[in-house]
Amino acid sequence: MITQEFKIKGMICSRCLKVLNNELNATGAKVLDIQLGKVVINYRPEKINRSIIEHIIVGNEFEIITSDNEILGEQTKRWIINYIYNSDLNTKLSSYLNSHINKSYSFISDNFSKIFEYTVERYALTIKIERAKELIEMGELNFTEIAYCLGYQNLSALSRQFKQETGDTMKKYKEKRGVRTPLDKIR
Fold first, then answer.
1. Coil vs helix vs strand at 119
2. Residue 97: exposed, middle, or buried by beta-carbon count in 10 A (0-12, 13-18, 19+)?
3. pLDDT tens digit string along 163-179?
4. Which of 4, 100, 146, 187 to pair with 130, CA 20 to 30 A apart?
5. Region 2-66: CATH code
């Protein structure tokens, strides 16, 4: 039996975990640990090999990563998504990342910019806009409540950024149900 760990780019939600877990188990591999960005499996090389495992990972639109900097970049993306979706947004993003990643914000930010060729702040803004689109489509909150939910001091600040990023006003987006980008496709 071989035990192997794979670091994976593009895993951002529980469905990602479920898909990989199911497909890897279907090959006869035993998933020992799976979490966002990582899977550890045990398998018999006479039944399956590394190329089959890699094919399953890549076939599900994930990428295997080996560089420590890329791994840190992917962790940063996941923590930014978590910050926007699951925190009260009262803590500054830089402090939030620093406390969850245990590295200085300048190191995290520099690494992120080198790996993805855009800033942490730019990525966070893009995620916020996608979250705003989702909240608009859900229809449970008015625009002002959405702005406060996303950490804006007022609706006009969100409205300005939303228009700048999407080309539409929030009202127009709501009327026509614009296009959302899956979070794992935001580059």
1. coil
2. buried
3. 999 999 999 999 987 77
4. 100
5. 3.30.70.100
Q: For the chain, which residues make up each domain, given as ranges?
A: 2-66, 69-185
Rounded Cα gap, residues 181 and 65, in angstroms:
23
CB neighbour burial string for 157-171, b if at least 16 within 10 angstroms, e if fewer: ebbebbeeebeeebe
Q: Rounded to an integer, what distance in angstroms lies between the CA atom of residue 101 and that of residue 79?
A: 8
Mean pLDDT of all residues in 80-92: 89
Rounded to 5 degrees, what are φ and ψ at 63? -130, 145
How confident is the model at residue 187, as a pLDDT? Answer: 66
In contact, 71 and 9? CB cutoff 8 Å = no
Phi and psi of 178, rounded to 5°?
-60, -170
User: Quick one: CATH architecture of 69-185?
Assistant: Orthogonal Bundle (1.10)
Contacts of 117 (CB under 8 A, 6+ apart): none
Question: What is the pTM for the complete model shown?
Answer: 0.78
Three-state SS at 156: helix
Cα distances (Å, whole numbers) of residue 11 to 40, 57, 94, 167, 183: 14, 10, 22, 29, 10
CA angle 79, 80, 86 (to 5 degrees): 80
